[in-house]
Design goal:
By secondary structure, the chain is an alpha/beta fold. It is built from 8 helices and 12 strands. α1 packs across α8 (251-261) and α6 (139-152) packs parallel to α7.
Length: 275
């Protein structure tokens, strides 16, 4: 495939744990080209991203100014794509900037509020620009969520536990929130109260989200990303669990999204909408 036919990809947050995996995956993909690597870590600015992540020189220096990179990403005949794995504090502005420049965002950074997602959806619609917000790129997690929807039709009691590394900035995880939202769409009220609960320590019962579903967040070193959905009924417990052992498991989903977002003219939330 000629280089001109490849999808130009900007990786924002390129020197982070997920960003490094994305750089490797994009570089290895036959239908993509790594256009730019962006990161705010000043220790890496100007250095070759390939040398930083240990896959040899790629002749792509790490840049700090996202705006100038987005301008560069609009110069090709094929519309550029920005893959963002940065920080909850900056992701909203990153997405707005990309859409404003006509670059299609694929967002793995979690922490966006429902109101922010709605605003970005309206902005993408007006700009007729595809945008993907994906709380979790793992196919296994999509399967877990589908299994949870099936089980929820038969169980009235459910709780969610999400476990992540202790460098994750937001809690609960976007994946756990998305799971609760999907369950809420069933229109069923979960966890009917049998006694009046009193928390001796505030937060002991976790966060209370859609349709009376509790989410508990655990942050410990040694973990990557894990989620349990636990159903309870008289005489039985049904547990669904997904464990991430290596971040490479997300890359097939990331590459799928890079390809799919070029076909869209609106915002889509959740990987399950693409499968």
């Amino acid at each position: 495939m000629e280089n001109s036919a490849k999808i130009p990809v900007v990786v924002n947050g390129a020197t982070g744990k997920m960003g490094r995996e994305v750089v490797k995956a994009v570089h290895a993909a036959d239908d993509m080209t790594l256009l730019a690597a962006v990161d705010r870590n000043r220790a890496h600015i100007g250095k070759d991203i390939g040398e930083i992540i240990g896959c040899g020189p790629l002749e792509v220096p790490v840049l700090e100014d996202l705006q100038s990179v987005l301008v560069m990403a609009t110069q090709d005949e094929i519309q550029g794509v920005m893959v963002d794995f940065t920080h909850p504090d900056s992701v909203y502005e990153n997405v707005r900037s990309a859409i404003a420049y006509g670059v299609r965002p694929v967002i793995g950074t979690t922490g966006l509020s429902s109101a922010q997602i709605e605003e970005l959806s309206e902005f993408a619609d007006k700009a007729s620009t595809g945008c993907l917000i994906i709380p979790n790129f793992s196919i296994g997690m999509v399967l877990l969520q589908q299994a949870a929807l099936s089980a929820a039709r038969y169980f009235d009691h459910i709780e969610i536990i999400e476990l992540h590394h202790n460098q994750k900035a937001d809690a609960p995880s976007g994946t756990a929130i998305k799971t609760a939202q999907m369950l809420a769409e069933l229109g069923k009220q979960f966890n009917p109260q049998l006694v009046k609960e009193s928390e001796i320590i505030a937060g002991a019962r976790g966060a209370l989200l859609e349709e009376n579903i509790h989410i508990h967040s655990i942050r410990l070193p040694g973990m990557i990303a894990h989620q349990e959905v636990i159903f309870g009924a008289a005489g039985q417990i049904y547990t669904l669990r997904h464990d991430t052992t290596d971040r490479s498991c997300y890359m097939p989903g990331v590459l799928l999204c890079v390809r799919k977002v070029t076909e869209l003219k609106n915002l889509v939330y959740g990987l399950e909408k693409l499968l």
